[in-house]
Amino acid sequence: MARVLALANQKGGVGKTTTAVNVSADLARRGRRILLIDLDPQGNATSSLGVDKHGVERSSYDVLIEGRPVLECLLEAVRPRLDLLAANASLAGAEVELVGVRNREFRLREALAEPRAGYDAIVIDCPPSLGLLTVNALTAADEVIIPIQCEYLALEGLMQLINTIDLVKRRLNPSLDILGVVMTMYDARTRLSAQVVHDVQRFFPTRMFRSVIPRTVRLAEAPSFGQTIFEYDAASRAAAAYTFLGGEVAARLGLASDERDEEVGAAAARGEATP
Known about the structure:
It is a single chain. This protein has an eight-stranded mixed beta sheet, with helices on both faces. It is about 40% helix and about 15% strand. It has helices spanning about 15-30, 45-50, 60-65, 70-75, 95-100, 105-110, 130-140, 160-170, 190-205, 215-220, 230, 235-255, 260-270, and strands at about 5, 35-40, 75-80, 80-85, 120-125, 145-150, 175-185, 210-215. Helix 1 packs across helix 12 (about 235-255) and helix 12 packs antiparallel against helix 13.
């Protein structure tokens, strides 16, 4: 049965979608079968993988609102071992349409009951809000990954997210847990980045991932070419960082495979892509 991961932070521009896409791609490189769900009406995870979100016929909207099976709506093998449940413009109205739906918080959880058996992990890219779409993701998830930007006010609103996670855990999903916190957009040239990492480490002493994602132009450019960082620039610092983060996520999920992980790590060290 797949472990379901939600990447959530109601603050926009923290590298949430970039992390969802590249962690999914890295886990797939490690030989795991992955489903990435784009639950953000902006559809950035969809376009980051080179899929035209305007041309998507069936999306996460059809699953949540129309009740269609996930397996009928997903795009298979957008990358080797990586499937995508895309988002399109229709999802923008889902928040309003869900209000009057019975068991509205459980729509995604119920929809994932069947496909969970076919994957090692399901990764959900949440919208930058704490509305019904995010609540659906948290209700369906086993664990949450929280990306936090290494900038001033990074902790602003974080307590609200933690309170939402706790509320969902108490009322809707008792098994929900935080898998880890990942620091993104780290700039080694500034004291501020180091200070923010230090502050978050005090806040989450046992939850921090050791991997820190750097702020790089290559990482910002990759989505515009519809590529993961491993395809766009396998030799970059960002590709190495996401390789190591993917290894940490795999280990915490119990998905690590020593032989394949060593191959991926060695390729990252050489600056090579892994098939």
